[in-house]
């Protein structure tokens, strides 16, 4: 018994601008284009990471400012008076300036 199978391949006509279009490119040019695209991707990732870091830094600054204001309302001391190191630093700089101004 012989079975014959007829296969009909219906290939759709090629459309212009199709995403499956094959373009022949010089290997060196393809490598250059890939390197350029990789640099653009890395630059976008770096910018995104910097924005995340700035957002985190801003959040910590707001938390610190809020804590300082809460302590100021409870103790009556201003934010600068809460940290004696700031006054020591101011004295340090005034001593340096006085040394050179004499």
TrEMBL record:
GO cellular component: chloroplast thylakoid membrane
InterPro entries: PSII_Assembly/Photoprotect-Rel
SUPFAM superfamilies per UniProt: Chlorophyll a-b binding protein
Source organism, top-level taxon: Eukaryota
Protein name: Uncharacterized protein
Taxonomic lineage of the native organism: Eukaryota, Viridiplantae, Streptophyta, Embryophyta, Tracheophyta
